[in-house]
Amino acid sequence: MTDTVDDKGEDKIVSQGETDQESSHRFKYLFHNMEDAAVEFEFVENRPIVRAVNSAFTNIFGYEKDTIEGHPLNDFIIPEAHEGESHLFDTRTESGEHNKAVVRRETTSGVRRFLYRGIPYERRDGSSYGFAIYSNITEETRREHRLQVLHRILRHNLRNKLNVINGLAERIETNQTDIETVEAAQGIQAKTTDLTHLSAEAGNIERILDRTKRVETSIDVVDLCERVVSEYRSAYPEAEITLNLPRSLTLTATDHIEIALQELVENAVEHNDSATPKVRLAATQARSGQKEWITISVADDGPMIQQGEKQIMNPNSGSDQLSHGSGLGLRLVQWITDVAGGTITVDESDLGGNIVELQFKQ
């Protein structure tokens, strides 16, 4: 690769054996065929003056190149309430800093949200230029916000209603002597407990998928597995929960991994009809090619996970159904693993049941 300068004095990066004209053509092809709106501008007296726009910019913002080229970009697309914000971005770009932010801009269909990226560059003659790229995220942002609101309202109302129902069922069970009535009340309490657990799982999912709260840290895998096993040995004394761990093992990920292991161990015990369910939590480290991988597995001797439920944990299966009968637990495990950049597999274990393996790059 070599640096060259075109006839306008613009810096170019060209491949060996490539002419300036070929390099310019390659760049123009990329610029004009991007799906995102893109604009090239020059700073003149601290203002971004439009030098080129692509067709996506014209379609989204409604300005033909003959109308906008040679004029200040901000006069066309910046809402009045955001002029101060745009001035800050311009100052950063002109000083050679990159920008990335979610912004509001005026389009042919009103003010819309965009992921904005500002990329500065300087020509050989010392003039300051830059590119602004706008990815329309209006619908994604609206959808995410609406889902968050609906989720919180539904979960709040669900929890309150379930508490009322459970209280009424307890009163019926306490005050009635008819066996069928008492059994019906106990059945209601069991179902409300299931739904309350489902609400709690939904709350976990909300926290896990919240990008602003994802903080990676160094996790002591051995300590984590021992803590989970200790918790569930106390909760299920009838179960045989064992460990197979190395002396030490660390993993860089979010602490949500603990929730995934809790879900897997709990599922392994609760979905096992044996009087003494067997569960084994293990962790290993191995090299594959140039990469080190950590595998954390939960094996059991319970009934095999149905194919439809296995698809929940396979992000490439195309299965988005919510009617598999296992609540949100398995889906929660898959999402946690995916957020941490890991993979998940389900197979038959040597205990006679399932083995779920979570694999993460070290």
CATH first level of the largest domain: Alpha Beta
Q: Shape, please?
A: elongated
Largest sheet, in brief, is:
5 strands, antiparallel
What is the string of SSEs from the N terminus onward?
EEHEEHHHHEEEHHEHEEHEEHHEE
**Integer count of domains:** 3
Residues in β-strands, percent:
25-35%
Strand order of the largest sheet: 4-3-7-6-5
User: What does the average pLDDT come to?
Assistant: 83
Q: What helical percentage do the residues reach?
A: 40-55%
CATH architecture of the largest domain: 2-Layer Sandwich
Number of strands: 14
CATH level 4 superfamily of the largest domain: Histidine kinase-like ATPase, C-terminal domain
Tally the helices.
11
Can you walk through the features of this model?
With 362 residues, the protein is of the alpha+beta class. It has 3 domains: 34-136, 2-Layer Sandwich (Beta-Lactamase); 138-213; 215-362, Heat Shock Protein 90 (2-Layer Sandwich), CATH 3.30.565. It contains 11 helices and 14 strands. The two termini are 33 Å apart.
Notable characteristics:
3 domains, 43% helix, alpha+beta, 5-stranded mixed β-sheet, Beta-Lactamase, 11 helices, elongated, 14 strands, Heat Shock Protein 90, 362 residues, disordered N terminus
Short description:
With 362 residues, the protein is an alpha+beta fold. The protein folds into 3 domains: 34-136, Beta-Lactamase (2-Layer Sandwich), CATH 3.30.450; 138-213; 215-362, 2-Layer Sandwich (Heat Shock Protein 90), CATH 3.30.565.10.
